[in-house]
Amino acid sequence: MNILSPTPTPSPTSPPSRSDLTVLIGPTRPDKIELEKGLIRWAVSSHWLDDTHTAPAYAGQLPTTWKLGNRPNLAQMHAAAAKDISDGIVSARLLDEIPKVKQQLTGSASALGVRVHTLPPGPKDIEDDGGFHYAVLGPSAASESGKPSTEAKRYLDEKINSGNPRVFRNAVILLTPSKDGLELAYNRIREYLAWEQVRLDLDEQLKQKKGTIDVARLQTLQINIEKSRSKIADAIKQAWCIVCTVSDTNENQAFKITVQDESHFLTIKNDDRSRVKDTPVSAEALQPGGPYNLWHQGETSRRVKDLAGAFAQMPHLPKMLKAEAIVTTLVEGCIDGAFVLRLPRPNKTFRTWWRSKPDDAALADAALELVLPDAAELSDIPAGLLAPGALPSLWTGDEISAKTAADFFNGSKIVQVDKGGYLAPMQIPKATGEVVFAAIAQAVQAGQLWLLAPPATLLAEPIPPGILSDTARLRPPPPDVLPADILPENLPNAWEAGNTTALSIATALSQKQTTALPWKTIRDVIHAALTARFLEHAPGSGPWPCEYPAAQAVKLRPPAALPDKDKEKKLYDQPSKLLVGTATLEPSQLQDLAEIVPALLDIKAKTGVPITIHIRIEAGDGKDRPTPKIADQLNETLTKFKKDLKLS
């Protein structure tokens, strides 16, 4: 475009217009689009054109007027200012700008549990603790694809210095600039700083001449400042595109990523070359013979700390975003029965966990070990494991002996466990008979097992010494007995002359069930009957509730006014055919009941299910019978509601 330099103007009074230039260049038959691009580039970069008329070029449009100026234009001033800006100032400004784009470089990393380091001063600032670390290094660590820089290697290899090597190298990922991209970022910084210097120079000129600056020129300057500033962030994003980390062959590697709209960290995480894994590892994968090769030949136990740290230490393993996820997997494997967790005590005994979760203090203990089930011996068995359905093949019927339970833990038992569509073998760890019997005692006391060792029948109470033996039988807790089942008409053997005792009810119910029922079952049904007012204490009764030895002293009888037997039988003797609910209401609550009746009737109409409401009204305190006068007053009121509703 130099052919346009000092060319005579077509008019002595006006500078060349765009059409004048087109006419001048037309005989060369240039491409229209290329011509316009060239003219725009010339308008922006020329040191001689009068920038009063070239402002449209900075917006990508052709100026309408072309004129050589008699003063340095903005482009010339910018070029001169750029030469005077030292490399040190540019480097310092770049370091200030990097944190401003931190979200693009590190976004989502912290949320995923990653420890983020932006411009760490040295390797020691990235902890060597087994946690996942992601660091954005400064310009001095610039690398090339396939060639990690010396500084980047130091961060991967050293904990503090060359004499203190990093242990968990597989848990560190570095992001560095490329050399070409860094050069571009420097240029963007220099361009911006030069435009800011031009602003200062013009301000100084304005002060010295005490005049006014050209408005068009000022607008052009502002456009250049904003445009150059906006290019800095993108230049940094594009420059920081080299990932340095340890390969699966334990070599320091560097590879380039394609910068996308998502954060650099997410791009790195999703790149197969990074080998980052953010999904849980299965317990099976951590066992001997699994894909990660974590066990040496003949090993039967390993420290949980070492297994969790192996992924951060061994380069052939994937990089785990959350080291604690490995511990979580090991705990889940223990709960599922794949492992036994063991913690040594100072007296050289052990605490063990199998099919249960260790407490937080145990999980935080560095001495916690993972033991393979076929090599473990349990010091404790959770009581719930002995309940029916908890362990496959332990219960083959409705009853097992204590010896059967003990033999189940002899160390040679392998059962099949449903893994959701397929069966997998599970080794039952060994436990001594003493440990199994202790678990039985806990289960019986917790109400999870019913122990029968005639004449003893125990549930939800401690087992006395000498009762638990190999021949003791274990059953699930018996079903609850309904309150109506102990009324005279349903349990006549327990009643004599309208009275009974808690012991008589226990004996009669056991005879009816052909098995001695545990005292808890008897106590619960008597308590329910008293609460529902099916029974009441007879004069001279002993205290209630009580334990079995005092049952003979608890005297019971039906209440003075027992509800109609046919209705009671209909309400309580057929629970499998009726849904029944009972409640004691205060007179003030009858209004509340009336308010929900329409809703009950609506359900009845929609479902076709009959709904019957029975009313039972009691008057008196159960000690002194109300006088006939009071009864007449009550009945007079009740018959106004329903003629046959009378108290007697």
Write a structural description.
By secondary structure, this protein is α+β, with helices and mostly antiparallel strands. The protein folds into six domains: 1-71; 88-180 and 237-269, no CATH class; 279-378; 383-475, no CATH class; 483-572, Arc Repressor Mutant, subunit A; 587-641, no CATH class. The chain contains 19 helices and 22 strands. The chain has a five-stranded mixed sheet. The chain has a four-stranded antiparallel sheet with strand order 7-11-9-10. The longest helix has 31 residues, at 179-209. The chain starts with 17 loop residues before the first helix and ends in a 7-residue tail after the last helix.
Q: How many angstroms separate the termini?
A: 122 Å
Helix share, percent: 25-40%
**Overall pLDDT level:** 88
Net shape: elongated
Largest sheet report:
5 strands, mixed
Q: What is the percentage of strand-forming residues?
A: 5-15%
In the predicted model, the low-confidence regions spanning at least 5 consecutive residues are 1-12, 562-575
Evaluate the radius of gyration: 45 Å
Tally of individual domains: 6
Question: Tally of extended strands?
Answer: 22
- Structural class comes to alpha+beta
Figure out the total of helices.
19
Which strands sit side by side, in order, in the main sheet? 1-2-3-4-5
